[in-house]
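Re: weekly structure request thread

Next one in the queue (259 aa):
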Amino acid sequence: ATVVRGLFLANRSLGLGVELAQGRAVLAGVAVVDTLPQAASGLYGMGVQVGSGGRLAMVGCAVVRGHRAGVLAGSQSQATLTGVVVSAVAPQENFNTHGAGVWVVTGSALTASALRIENCHSAALAVQQASVDVRGAVLVGTQLAKSQVASGAVGVVVGDGLVAHDATALKVVQSVVAANARAGVFLDGEVKGGATLDAIALLGGTFGLVLQRGAVATRTGVVIAGASQQSVAGHAGLSVPEPPALLPLTVEAVPKPKR
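Done, posted below.
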């Protein structure tokens, strides 16, 4: 499916979902704006979701003022974001948790270029057991928010530019990560496929770079400045957020018309 120059405005639960095993959706010049949570429960409210092995490509799109997550890729899916802006994602209303710009989880993969994530909550870009390759990104202005964390506790406050928990591979190139409330880049756990930070600036925040639980990153041309507590930290004792669950979607096959 291909959508060109569309507007998805003030939908509830989910702005737009891709839930097709081996299926593909292409969004070009699409805006997903003001996605609202479910009226009764206060759950969900994500901008764009891709799951069940689906493939999503977004070019020149904007995801603005959603809840819980701007873009959520899970369940062995693939997302390619080019020239995409994700802005002002708010926490989920019922527990006032989450609010990340982009989440990539559970064996999924993100490839992004010229990606801008701004003024979201808990994390601009969050990764768990997934891979990311990001080039020319700007991850700025993440605000503190409560989150359920890997230990199961709820209410831990997080606010990172990029947080990766047990990522399978990670590469960030020619990017700016600035003015995020907690850490610029926070890697928790060994990245089995390797972690590379190349020509990036980590500016402001409490911590510039945190490498925790055996995380190691190859760093080339990394500038860290303005961290209020520590530029590079090892075992800082920080908690990592648990990803929000995908909204269950029902996909019905439409029979081909008879000729």
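Residues 20 and 255 are 15 Å apart (CA to CA). The radius of gyration is 17 Å.
Next request, please.
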